[in-house]
């Protein structure tokens, strides 16, 4: 009974966006084929969705290595951001002095425009993997630090008191109470970070790269192959969505108690 | 202004002593000092453990402290919550499980060891919390208004359950509460505190034979004890807002 209700609600919430997207694609297709197609070569400037899909299919072999490059940059950069971000969060949480010293620096690091820093990174570290990884790291670590710090701080002080009566020290309390308790917060930071991560890598490639979807798009654009630009955009979107879904799955596996507790909460409030 | 002043409370081994006082009177501070969470500015607490005759200098990790809220970790099962204290003490998981599991049956929690906190009722969560404290205790349990957050019906059944559990554990109990009836039902002796700075205005021995139940409330002695305690609270200035109607 319950499941059928949530199932129906799921379909109902999917319905509007699917309709809206279909309408948009339909109008796009018609405009490109009928209006722009009437001008000679006009439909090359804004190719119809069906043409984008077919050019994506035709160029799979060319796109694959670029996609892999972007994915690798994203994955390595994100993994580093997770390590660095959580590391900073722990340091900030455990030491009030370091908190005062480090936190403002982190905020300042987010005010530096990537537009300015990306070319410098390429200048310093070349056209390879490293500058892109660093850009992904820069983009991703901040939401993780903030989410971690907030999560650690949200620990119930009574719980800390209770564990102190057990004779637990700072580190034990961190391991057994504060860190697991902060995981839901950390995961919301990770979800924000992962949505930015692919775009970060593409950004880095745009400035200068040998391989990757960013540089691919730039080349396609210079040769007026707009369909290929859109094909790369589709891959970037798919990568982002895929990573986001993967995060949600990992979250469900790591903190099942959080979702179970939330569901129990809404059920009891319904009663 | 000090929170507590001239607190002299004697708690005999194996006894059940209640500290009764208005909200915000510093009862919890007193328990915090007893538990070793806070240090008194002056004076000292002498605790002797049942296992040795030398005074317990460091109560942290030695006593069972039960807070008002159950504070169960939502990512642990009831059993793993119950052994949290033992784990901190360094007892292996297997041994801690072996110690805790039989108590689940004795404390009316059989079949719920593998349940998560969100699957348990408020009263059951409180029992798991009690169990967690009892497993840590080397003879002294400190209860900080443990049933304050429960509804009246659950509270009455939990008091009855605690009477049973206390008789079973043969531990020393210090309970802090603002509930006069709870104090009488559970205790051998009740100490009454004034508002801040809290000091002891008097104490009352509760001579109702055990085993008791919540039905003891109907005992004629009960009404008498309640009257005396309310008089003490009124004399201490704790009832300026609620008192005066009789």
Spell out the blueprint of helices and strands.
The complex is a heterodimer of chains A (271) and B (246).
Chain A (H helix, E strand, L loop, with lengths): L1 H34 L13 H10 L1 H35 L1 H16 L2 H12 L3 H25 L3 H9 L4 H38 L5 H10 L3 H29 L1 H15 L1
Chain B lengths: L15 E5 L6 H9 L28 E3 L11 H5 L1 H6 L3 H14 L15 H15 L3 E5 L7 H18 L2 E6 L2 H7 L2 E5 L6 E6 L14 H16 L11
Helix pairs in contact in B: 4-5, 5-6, 7-8
Question: What are the secondary-structure elements of chain B, in order, as H or E?
Answer: EHEHHHHEHEHEEH
Structural class of the secondary structure composition of chain B?
alpha/beta
How would you classify the quaternary structure? heterodimer
Helical content class of chain B: 25-40%
Structural class of chain A: mainly alpha
* Helicity level of chain A: over 70%
Biggest sheet layout of chain B:
6 strands, mixed
Overall pLDDT confidence of chain A: 89
Number of strands of chain A: 0
Structural write-up:
The complex is a heterodimer of chains A (271) and B (246). With 271 residues, chain A is mainly alpha-helical. Chain A is built from eleven helices and no strands. Chain A is globular and about 80 Å long. Chain B is of the alpha/beta class. Helix content of chain B is 37%, strand content 12%. In chain B, helix 4 crosses helix 5 and helix 5 runs parallel beside helix 6. The longest helix of chain B has 18 residues. The interface between A and B is medium-sized, with 23 and 25 residues.
Which terms would index this structure?
heterodimer; A: 271 residues; mainly alpha; 0% strand; disordered C terminus; B: 246 residues; alpha/beta; 6-stranded mixed β-sheet; 8 helices; 37% helix
Question: Short summary of the structure?
Answer:
The complex is a heterodimer of chains A (271) and B (246). Chain A has 271 residues and is mainly α.
